[in-house]
Amino acid sequence: MAVTTLDPNTALIVVDLQKGLVGAPFSHPIDKVVERSCALLHAFRERGLTVVLVNVAGGAPGRTEQPRHSRTFPAGWTDLIDELGQQPGDIVVTKRTWGAFASTDLGDRLKALGVTQVVVTGVATGTGVESTARQAYEHGLNVTLAIDAMTDSRSEAHDYSIRNVFPRLGETGTAQDIIDLLGTRN
What we know:
34% of the residues lie in helices and 20% in strands. It has helices at residues 30-46, 106-112, 125-138, 155-169, 175-184, and strands spanning 10-15, 51-56, 91-95, 117-123, 142-151, 171-173. It holds the Pfam family Isochorismatase.
């Protein structure tokens, strides 16, 4: 479903745009993802809406068939990229799972602020972004996904999430579609 509306108290969640990840190979140019996410950040901040910046600093425990990254990261790896221009009023969440709600207090914090909808951007589409969107949906939030402000290292995962998963979780649109809707709100 194409993005049609934004609730009066919508928050923006930017997932894993951090120094240790933006240099990775992605299926879409990361500079465009950063540019569009920053345009959304500016629009949300300009309207006094909640901004959530998420970074990842580990992984959930448990065995997997595929090898995982080391739990030790080099200095600065988890730092949010400078382009996000972190502000004192931003909510910053450090996660150790794919999604930003599991094992964090993000759901409680958004509920306390009266947030009823989230817009999600960032990396990686099929893991961090999708998991965060699923968890937001499970928390009863309306979900919108800025599909041109996200990417994945695996193009098939990116495409699958956009085509098959996101329409079941909420509405999708471009960053500009969302900014345009913000401009029509009172």
